[in-house]
Write a structure and sequence with these properties.
Blueprint lengths: L1 H14 L4 H8 L6 H13 L5 H12 L5 H10 L4 H10 L3 H13 L4 H5 L1 H13 L4 H13 L1
Helix pairs in contact: 2-3, 4-6, 5-6, 7-10, 9-10
């Protein structure tokens, strides 16, 4: 059974990166015991086939251009990544304000000042950026900068 469980884990890992927590959850119904599962996950980690750090880097690289720090951190913590690893990964990416400006420009383009001054349009843009996980301070700075253009 140990060999079959390991092969299943390797097939799962062949598709994409997983965290220890995710892989454990997927394999738990197939394992004979929690100890067997823990040993397999430890072995995969030791042989560098499973890495939370690699998963975090991959996830951040693929999603940071569209999402704010809060949403990225929430997604990673939900997958079982440690807070320290999340903070280190977020510190290594481009700052949130630059990413938020790029997201805003892609979505709304260069609008005239009057459009952003309109309360309804401004609220819509705030909701959009907030839904992407950008902080209130970052949103305020993006809209203030674009309003001053």
């Amino acid at each position: 059974m140990q060999h079959a469980l390991r092969e299943r884990a390797l097939r799962i890992l062949a598709h994409r990166e997983y965290t220890r927590h995710e892989l454990s959850s997927k394999l738990a119904p197939l394992a004979e015991s929690p100890a067997q599962l823990a040993a397999l996950v430890d072995d995969l980690t030791a042989s560098n086939l499973l890495s939370d750090q690699r998963y975090t880097s991959t996830r951040i690289n693929s999603r940071a251009a569209r999402l704010g720090d809060a949403r990225l951190a929430h997604e990673l913590r939900a997958k079982g990544v440690s807070t320290e690893l999340v903070q280190a990964a977020l510190a290594a990416v481009e700052d949130e304000l630059t990413r938020a400006r790029r997201v805003w420009e892609r979505r709304f383009g260069c609008q005239p000042t009057a459009a952003v001054a309109d309360a309804t349009e401004r609220a819509r843009q705030i909701r959009f950026l907030a839904g992407r996980g950008f902080s209130a301070e970052t949103i305020r700075r993006v809209l203030r900068t674009n309003n001053e253009k």
